[in-house]
Amino acid sequence: MSEEENLIPESGDYDLMLQLDRLESLREDLLDNKLDNLTGLEAALALLVPTGPETEERRNDLQEIRTEMLALNLDTLDEIETQIDRLNQQLDDEDDE
Q1: How many CB atoms lie within 10 A of CB 31?
Q2: How far apart are CA 32 and CA 13, in angstroms?
Q3: How far apart, in whole angstroms, are the C-alpha atoms of residue 80 and residue 69?
Q4: Global pTM?
Q5: Phi, psi of 42 (to 5 degrees)
Q6: Closest CA to 69 of 97, 34, 42, 32
Q7: Confidence of residue 10 (pLDDT cuts 50, 70, 90)
Q8: pLDDT value at position 1?
Q9: Taking a C-beta distance cutoff of 8 angstroms, is the pair 91, 84 a contact?
Q10: Distance (Å, rounded) from C-alpha 81 to C-alpha 74?
Q11: pLDDT at 28 > cutoff 50
């Protein structure tokens, strides 16, 4: 096996890394918006009245976060953290093999 082949992660590892990146990005978005669950996010969306480009951008950002959480079937920041920990452990376990 050449050195270049060692630098390319296996497809399973790559998929795990993509999932991990997606979850970490979602976590960061929630923390940036001072939110920790889907209910709070939906309340923030309901209370946000678009009054200009800035609030419209915030509404779009919150809707993207909501869509992502629903797609992943995750309701809380704790669930996201648990999934991140699980993926990190899985990647560590595969590195040990």
Answers
A1: 11
A2: 28
A3: 9
A4: 0.82
A5: -65, -35
A6: 42
A7: low
A8: 42
A9: no
A10: 10
A11: yes
Measured between alpha carbons, how far is 81 from 90 in angstroms, rounded to an integer?
A: 14
CA distance 81 to 14: 20
Tokens representing 9 are: 């992660």
Does pLDDT of 23 surpass 70?
yes
What pLDDT, on the 0 to 100 scale, is given for residue 49? 86
| Non-local CB neighbours of 30 within 8 Å, separated by 6+ positions | 36, 41, 65, 77, 80
**CA dihedral angle for residue 63, residue 65, residue 69, residue 72, rounded to 10 degrees:** 110
Helices (H), ranges, the chain: 3-7, 11-32, 38-47, 53-72, 77-96
For 47-93, the pLDDT digits (tens) are: 998 788 989 999 999 999 999 999 999 999 999 999 999 999 998 88
Phi, psi (degrees; rounded to nearest 5) at 79: -65, -40
| pLDDT value of position 58 | 93
